[in-house]
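BUG-194 | component: ligand-complex export | severity: low

The export step for adenosine-5'-triphosphate jobs runs without errors, but we want the raw record kept on the ticket for reference. Input record follows.
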Amino acid sequence: MDKIPEKVFVISGKRKSGKDYVASLMCNRIGKHLCSSVQLSGPLKKQYAEDHNLNFEKLMDSSEYKEKFRIDMIKWGEDKRTEDPGFFCRLATSKADLKKIWIITDARRKTDVDYFKENYNDRTLTVRVCAKESIRKSRGFTFTLGVDDAESECGLDEGIHWDYLIHNNGDQDLLDKDINHLVTIVQEKLCDVT
Ligand SMILES: Nc1ncnc2c1ncn2[C@@H]1O[C@H](COP(=O)(O)OP(=O)(O)OP(=O)(O)O)[C@@H](O)[C@H]1O
């Protein structure tokens, strides 16, 4: 293992629940000098793009290009994960420049949660971003067969105990309150180690 973080927030949520939005708020409030946002889908997409001769930058943004390859990419990722469940988690966190606080922005499967619990047990906090379907739709979500009923989107809907829930339904005060709570945990932890 290359580097031991002080805290690992493992964020999950349905499509367009606001995972990236929440991760970015957390990062800004904790301090960008302390936080690394880690996308598990990053290395997956990079490898997929290389193997299939595709444009990696376009796969990483929220363009139609990404949507076009989503189903095939999910299948390809499943096959890799079957061979080695921690493969993408390990790849995503093996960068040398990661900071003290890791914010994993896109846990999708139990194997993702298990990986961080197994490797950073005392430091991992699981976070579920919750948003009603109507709100997610207003942010661009449309139900897609083969995507929204696949394990990659439903694997963490049940059977996981979340340490924290973030309510992202449009009430900015409630969202702030939830995020401030997580920020306080980090600040307390960092006080303990300094
Ligand atoms: N509380 C909020 N206030 C304003 N805009 C928001 C809020 N939450 C999310 N959004 C916006 O909704 C859109 C979807 O959010 P985001 O990309 O964070 O969702 P996601 O869960 O990461 O989506 P995906 O599953 O597709 O990666 C973005 O344009 C984001 O800026």
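Assignee comment: Attached the raw record above. Residues 172-193 form the longest helix (22 residues).
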